[in-house]
Amino acid sequence: MDRFSIEELNLMCIYDTGTRAGLMAGLEKIALELAPDDAELSELIQSALKKLTAMSDQEYGELILVPDYEEGDD
Fold first, then answer.
1. In terms of domain of life, where is this protein from (predicted)?
2. Contact assessment for residue 20 and residue 57, using Cβ atoms and an 8 Å cutoff
3. Is the N end or the C end of the chain the one with fewer CB atoms within 10 Å?
4. Res. 68: pLDDT tops 90
5. pLDDT tens digit string along 5-55?
6. Torsion of CA 26, 28, 31, 32, to 10 degrees
């Protein structure tokens, strides 16, 4: 299985329902609502969905879905 990018993980944190199927359903719903000029977000969603589809529920349960926020230098 390919590893998830930071962007994919952050997106997954936003739409995580606690189950792989729920997360996939949420991402699919958002993908349908995107405007044509949201191509970058659409690609990110499709990439995450492809990886989620390829993994098992057990593998999903082992993921740590915590947003990665980098603090800037103040």
1. Bacteria
2. yes
3. C
4. no
5. 989 999 999 999 889 999 999 999 999 999 999 999 999 999 999 999 999
6. -110
* 37/50 Cα distance (integer angstroms): 21
Note the Cα 4 to chain centre separation in Å.
Answer: 8
For the chain, the residue count is 74
Handedness of CA 36, 10, 16, 1 (dihedral sign): positive
CB atoms within 10 A of CB 52: 20
Q: State the Cα–Cα distance between residues 1 and 42, nearest whole angstrom.
A: 21
Q: What does the DSSP 8-state code read for residue 62?
A: T
